[in-house]
Amino acid sequence: MAIDETALAASLLSLTGAIRAIEGPPVHRLSARLTAIVGAAAEVLGVDSVGVLLLDETGRLRSVASSAAAAEALERAQQQLGLGPGHDTQAGRRTVVVPDLADVPSYAPLTAEVARLGVRAVLSAPIWCDGAVVGNLNLVRARAGSWTDAEAAAAEAYAGVVGRVLGLVADVWTDGARPAWGRRARDNGGEHRADAR
Could you tell me the pLDDT band of residue 193, with boundaries at 50, 70 and 90? Predict the structure, then answer.
């Protein structure tokens, strides 16, 4: 699918502008922004759904946001199984493009969990915060098919907005309650990997 560059730019500008205007406790800031970002990404990029996985305090990826049931199912299955495009993105610190989960033998357990729920093609982009990959943003399609370079670049741009939100929220966290991904980014300077069982 062709990306509407004007809509993409407007969406990214709007989301980035909203980062500076958010108020309230950090957890509410994060939740509201992630919900807005995954919803905007799904709409502008014309995918079926979008989800976000972030590292927890033990270095494992956890589902934190999704735009629809298919992305939620993918994120929870990746979390439970410890494998999938999100884990590969985390380990390799790079975007992972999967035209069809069913074509990747190592993803067979994941495919068994999510194919019936409308998850076939996945594009996973790393979320960078303070020089570390602290999670990933995952685009989901119900039908198998290739991803374009423009779609990968757009996913990376939305992942960049997520990273900026995480940085802002981590900066205002108080009383030593800095979120796990914020502590890990600060303490390890980008050398984390997700737990892959």
Answer: very low
Share in percent of the chain as helix, strand, coil (round to 5): 55, 20, 30
Distances (CA, A) of 98 to 13, 14, 170, 184: 28, 29, 31, 28
Instruction: Return the minimum-mean-pLDDT range out of 50-64, 116-130, 178-192.
Output: 178-192
Contact 174, 130 (CB under 8 A): no
> Which pair of structure tokens corresponds to residue 7?
């809509």
**Strand 61-66 versus strand 49-55 pairing type:** antiparallel
Work out the angle at residue 189's Cα, subtended by the Cα atoms of residues 184 and 195, and round it to the nearest 5 degrees: 50
Contact 40, 15 (CB under 8 A): yes
Q: Delimit the domains of the chain by residue range.
A: 48-185
**Rounded to whole angstroms, how far apart are CA atoms 49 and 68?**
5
Strands across the sheet with 61-66, in order?
Answer: 61-66, 49-55, 132-141, 121-129, 96-98
Q: What percent of the chain has pLDDT over 90?
A: 52
SS3 76: helix
Distance CA 32, CA 141 (A): 24
Residue of 14, 31, 6 whose CA lies nearest to 165: 31
Which long-range contacts (C-beta less than 8 Å, at least 24 apart) are formed by 169-176? 169/26, 169/29, 169/30, 169/33, 170/129, 170/130, 172/26, 172/29, 173/26
Domain 48-185 homologous superfamily, CATH: GAF domain (3.30.450.40)
